[in-house]
Amino acid sequence: MALRIAALYLISTLLLLLALGAGLYLSTERTLIDARRADLQAEAAADAAFLHSAAPGEDDLRTLASVLASVLPAGGGGPRSLRVFSANGTLLAALPPDAAGRGRPSRATRDLLPPGLLAVTQGTVDEPGLIYAAQAITGTTRAGGNGTVGVIEAAGLRADIDRILERLRRGFTLAAALAGLLAAAMGGVLARSVARPVRRLEAVATAIAGGDLTRRATGLPRNEIGALGDSFNAMAARLAAGLAESRAEQARLAALLASLVDGVLACDAAGALTLENPAAREMLGVAHAAPPAAVAAAAAAAGIGALWARAMGTVGGGHPGPVEEEITAAGRALLVVAAPLGATGGAVCVLRDITRLRELEQGRTAVFRRLGHELRTPLTALRTVLANLSDTATPAAAGPLATAEAEAERLSRLVDEILAVGQGRATAPLAVRPTDLATLVAGVCALFVGRAGRLGVALAGPDAAGAAVIVRGDPDRLRQVLVNLLDNALRHTPPGGQIRISVAVTDGHAVLQVADTGEGMDAATGRWAFAPYYQGSGPAGDAPAPPAGPTRVGGLGLAIVREIVTAHGGTVGLDSTLGMGTTVTVQLPLATAPSPP
Length: 597
Prior knowledge:
This protein has 597 residues and is α+β, with helices and mostly antiparallel strands. The chain contains 15 helices and 16 strands. The chain folds into four domains: 2-164, 2-Layer Sandwich (Beta-Lactamase); 260-353, PAS domain (Beta-Lactamase), CATH 3.30.450; 358-422; 433-589, Histidine kinase-like ATPase, C-terminal domain (Heat Shock Protein 90, 2-Layer Sandwich). The model is unreliable at 537-554 and 593-597 (pLDDT under 50).
């Protein structure tokens, strides 16, 4: 770099000196020539005035030119010569005689000659080494008018001027050589002063590029390079701070990923693994010390690569979007949710170990299967006994036995439905038909009167002979709704309490209400009253959290009520006050307008 700077400085200096020398040389040459031409012009003017007075006419000039030339004031000879030309460019006289040359005028003379055939056709000759000046001689022309009758030409040698210019050239050459040496020396010093701090900056930049962000540029001059070094140091400090923050953020992210119980895997747009955490390694059965390639191979074997491709929309002509699928890896059941990463490309997936959940589900299925067997066996025996009794019953006992047999049949269906809900299976479709809700409610209330009396609870239901309230519904399911509500009310109403059941028509809907004066519940408990497997803690405690799953013991009564009412296109609501009682309201759409009482 120093050599380049010195060479550039030297070339610049030499070019500047060359331009200055050339300008001075040309200016000097022009000044000397113009001064010599001015002297010759003055001499030519004096001689022209003399010839005008001595030979006032054109013919006189032609006749006397050779004689008068010898007595001209400027004389001629020495470094100067004189020539006299006629108006048509013919040489009339020359001093000294050897100055006649080839008899043709110079360009300066040619420019002063009046137009004429000879003057036009005759060429000009400027001898090398001469400087010319010309002056027109005026007088009476052959036509009788005043005008140019001839031209006197003065020529001088420029040898002395050339000698001056030669000395000037030698001086310029010597000066240029000395200036070049001086410029080379100064350029070297300047180059070193510039290159040294630049090399320092280059060394610092190389160190920073190699990852050493602690290097700084020091010892720089207080000039533009020093200001550049300060900016460079500030930039390096910002880079170091940014890198430290980035590394801290990476450390926090790594700690967060390591602490997650769910596995996390990410890939780039080509499907190559870019991120994984210890939980993902454990779920895929990969040792913690294994290289990332082992994780990538395990993920591909488990089908996660295909999920990534589906999430990114790179297979099957699909669109990018979340993908969820359950897979099996290393003997574990895993729920995998993959999603695209947007503009950055690639995808990320979260792995959740649901092995325990699947085991619990299998256990629950087994429990419900056994429970169904244990419940159906006595119910089958009960229905068989009731059928046998009905065959031999007296007329007085036939009615109660028929009711008991129908209830046993309904109880068998309810057991099947409860088991279906518990096992997550769909229940049988509704057997919908026009049903008198008032008559149905009165019949169910009649079944619970004895039980309510034994518990010391007053039970008041609608009048069986009242107005019909027709809804389109499944009678068995609607009877199940009322049985669950009454059973729930009796279990939470202490002796001496009351339960009131009413059926009315409001705004085109049948409204069934079951109100008790029992324990009641607070607002927090009421929010979860219809959740499966949930029971409130009673009046003495706070409402527990919602059930976490099938391992929490609770009831299905109100959950079944809501499911049946919703299937009929109705709604169910609960209004309860702790220590004062609960009112459950069921609304069902009417099938026809109610009949008058």
